[in-house]
Design brief:
Layout: H1 2-7, H2 11-22, H3 28-48
Helix pairs in contact: 2-3
Protein name: IS110 family transposase
Length: 62
Amino acid sequence: MLTVAKYHPSNISILYQRKKQSSSEFNTKKIAVAAMDRLIRTIFHLIKNNELYDSLKFSPEK
């Protein structure tokens, strides 16, 4: 995921990198869980509302 995120950043990877940089601790497990939670909630919303993914709609600062 990190290699893909480097060349094609998504809103989830941007959220992960921002939280990782702003965190003073090296506890990346909690940050990874938060990013996966955001991904699962985004996928659930798309399936529930029968929508296509739009990167502008799902901003990382939501």
